[in-house]
What we know:
The protein is of the alpha/beta class.
Amino acid sequence: MLLERINSPEDLRSLTHAELDDLATEIREFIVDAVNACGSGHLGSNLGAVELTIALHRVFESPRDILLWDTGHQAYVHKILTGRRDSFTTLRQEGGLSGYPSRSESPHDWIENSHASTVLSYAHGLATAQQSEHGDGRRVVAVIGDGSMTGGMAYEGLNNLGHSGRDCIIVLNDNGRSYAPTVSRLGESLNKVRSNPTYVRETTRMERFLRRVPLVGRFLNRGFNATRTAAREFWTEPVTFFEQLGLFYSGPFDGHDVRELERAFRNASEIGGPQVVHVVTQKGRGYAPAENDSVKHLHDVGGVKPGSYTAAFTEALIKAGENHPELVAITAAMPDSTGLLPFAERFPDRMIDVGIAEQHAVTSAAGMAMGGLLPVFAVYSTFLTRAIDQVNLDVALHGQKVIFCLDRAGITGDDGASHHGVLDMVLLSKVPGMTVLAPSSYQELQAMLHDAVELADGPVAIRWPKTAARNVHADEVGVGFRARRWREGDDVCILAVGKMLEAALAAADELAAEGRSVTVWDARAVTPVDLDMIADAARHRLVLTVEDGYRDGGAGALFAEHVAAHVDEADVPMPSVSVLGVPTRFIAQAKPDAILAELGLDATGIAAEVRRRS
């Protein structure tokens, strides 16, 4: 097999184009097998970027040339070609290969980029540094997908790159979402002429010559440019968007023709300056299940699982939508993973996809609420934290009722440090007027969404984990925004947040077998804090709080403050308080249960902490 001979980008340069076609087929088969064997990973975008990645590594000399990948969802081929093929058996596993570029894995990876729309800002910074007196003059190439171009930060990066004049090549990997112009054959030919360095040099030379003609030079130059522009816009879709930002545009090019891509990249290298090379690819190419997936072309493996918290949310949202015609659902390009597709099928005019634009989503939701709608924004916890300023000042400051539904809160596992939802409680609990709820079961989530819709008069956040949901009886579900006591004791009180209730109850059983009397509360609401729960906790000698978010400044720290305030006011002895949670550090990928156990956030760890403190 050809793939077995490729251990570095240099090994690509001796292959013929016919051999490269065979190699592309082998790479696709390898990726499908690796992702299926691991049971998780990103398929669609990687299968579409095979020839593009081969061409990039044939033309540019990584890591001397700096290749940057937006989100990393399209970087598997890059990893395979840069010496990590044999590590794919450990993809997204504990201690194994990251699902994204990783600086610790390879000098070919410059950024650990797993949140979209950021690569052009990195590129602007790196190009500025490389072309300064302190730089090495390395060429910067940034690959960004058309989906990531829906994020506002991408346009900020474009604007600065274009007006800086820095030497940087932006490869727009367009897999058919929104940036695929229809071009005639003559238009395609014209684009090839425009991207030819000889044409660019001669055009520049002609402009200089015309400007030097006495008296009428600037008029002649203006007429020359107008004629050139008219010809371009007559035969092609307008490319003025990029060029008005100061970026030279060429394309679109066939993203599955290595020979054509190499020519385009070499031309771009010779032209220099800030430019966009537009490449059209097919997401999921070469794998029938991905090509036939009309929703996301198997962007990732998996979906909403029956019995999950997300499934509970889907059911509850549709019911709320039936009772409240003013309710609208918002997604930031993730309607499937956040459980909104069934809602969209039921209410097609009431589901709004804003693209990868969380900040816009939040402020737009505030505007919707001001106008009489009831917006529900379903988003991963790690992605909402990109828009915390908008949550604070655009929603909460205006007192608007927006319901934030935070999927993948807490320790999430396979996606690694960038995807753990461990900041939301720290941040949202500091937003004035924000109600923060954490369900401990399938039924609790549904009750909380109902109460958020019916009872709240300001912003509400409901956060739940990726893991399976507990099921409880109707009489084991709390009411409103108050805590619920699950068991009563005298020695130790455990205040559990969300999914940690299950571990707290198991720890209580273990401690009870040793003769310790344990009270367990399901906090349910992080804010507002239930003062009855606090008063009950204060009567115990030892209080433990348990959460799957950051310990510093999180829910437990807030509960501990309230316990101290209560004993001060009631003039009773202060109990010993221990706050259990995630330490403030980046947590590597592994299965959620394994991570929680390592952090002492399972039944064994909670029981061990009680023994240590009593």
